[in-house]
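Bug #2210: token dump truncated for Endoribonuclease YbeY?
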Amino acid sequence: MTVNIENEYEGELNLPYEKIIEEIVLAALDYEKCPYEAEVSVVLTDNENIHALNKEFRSIDRPTDVLSFPMCDYETPADFDRLEDDAEDCFNPETGELLLGDIVISIDKVREQAESYGHSETRELAFLVAHSMLHLMGYDHMEDDERIVMEKKQEEILQSKGYTR
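Reproduced locally. Full output below:
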């Protein structure tokens, strides 16, 4: 597994973000029984930069907590079987790893939401990574039934690693 972490956040970051990110990425892959070694890139940034990305890629003129940029298309969430058909698009030719995609997280939002929800920044960061990993594996939450499934999976991934509220 390769997790590329780029910390572009210019403020102080007093939490073991690399450990949290790597632990939750692996936990999500294990939870969904991904049969491949995978590669994920994670960028930590601020509200200003995520706002610009939101505006450019989603036409949303405000910062959000996390953005997910999946590399593969799934007919059914976490159905890894058909990905070999798109091997040139979904796998790194040098390493053979499944290219899941990119995650961008606003540390400003991690702090705001941790305070708002009354839990730690550590738990909030873990939550956003779990949430985004599910997006990278084809899950969404646009419909209520999808949201319910995704929320249950997020909570189970977090609990498996001891990240509770």
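Output looks complete on our side. The helical segments are 17-31, 47-58, 87-90, 107-117, 121-136, 144-160. Marking as cannot-reproduce; reopen if the truncation happens again.
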